[in-house]
Amino acid sequence: MTYDDLKDNELENLEFEEIIEESSTGSEWRPEEAGEYIIGRYITTEEGKGKGEGYLFHYIRDTNSEERSIFGCTTLNSKLKTIDPGDIIKIVYNGIKTSERGRNYKDFTILKPKIESE
Fold this sequence. Notes:
By secondary structure, the chain is mainly beta. The protein has one domain: CATH 2.40.50. The protein is built from one helix and five strands. The protein has one helix at about 75-80; strands at about 35-45, 55-60, 65-70, 90-100, 105-110. It has a five-stranded antiparallel sheet, with helices on one face. Strand 1 (about 35-45) and strand 2 form a beta hairpin. The longest helix is centred in the middle third of the chain and has 7 residues, at about 75-80. The chain is elongated and about 70 Å long.
């Protein structure tokens, strides 16, 4: 049976269940203290859907091989534009900073490993 098969007068008799939003990509990395970091392989950046529409989400496979999502913000979005999928990176949360215009923002540093050529 599909939704289309139901008649309007049958809707009251349906059993309903709560919709639970599931993360298809594992857990979200949400740093709270300056100095927290995550290391892993950058996977991709995608625009959110539903409630997250219009926002960017960044995905990294961490050192435990777990795919982690990171909610984008202006500084993070801008800095990750230079990173290619598969690149190994370290994202360091620097805490809340205040811009010259007096607005608070989350600041991040993106680091790549030093790999010496032979």
